[in-house]
């Protein structure tokens, strides 16, 4: 059973300042949104998949299992672990909300990251 609950929200759906530590986890800023369009506490680009992995995956659902495996390997790296620890420390005892601009949340890095964070907390 996970020791921490992590929510995932699209930046287009919940722009307000709901309770919790809100972390934007995309490497690129969402098109069409100003920097003040939604509330976030931290922009953790280093928790997003590498540019190479993101380009390779290109949101091809047929490749999601392989994408997940490769992304988990990135999160398990020293840099990935460091980024995870930093966000968990910043969030402390607050609820954690991952923000993403992706359209298909269920086949995105955000859900993989949520599972990883829930298991790491």
Structural class: alpha/beta
- The tally of helices reads 4
Major sheet: arrangement of strands:
1-4-2-3
Let me know the number of strands.
Answer: 4
Question: What best-fitting shape do the alpha-carbon axes yield?
Answer: globular
Strand content: 5-15%
- What is the mean predicted local confidence, pLDDT? 91
Low-confidence runs (pLDDT<50, min 5 residues)?
none
Note the gap between the termini: 11 Å
Helical amount among residues, as a percent range?
Answer: 25-40%
Largest sheet geometry: 4 strands, parallel
Q: Using only CA atoms, what is the Rg?
A: 14 Å
Order of helices and strands: EEEHHHEH
Protein name: DUF488 family protein
Pfam families: DUF488-N3i
Structure description:
The chain is of the alpha/beta class and 121 residues long. The protein has one domain (6-120). It has helices at residues 51-57, 64-76, 78-91, 109-120; strands at 6-10, 21-24, 42-43, 96-100. A four-stranded parallel sheet has the order 1-4-2-3, covered by helices on one side. Helix 2 (64-76) packs across helix 4. The N and C termini lie close together (11 Å). The model has no long low-confidence stretch (mean pLDDT 91). InterPro entries: YeaO-like.
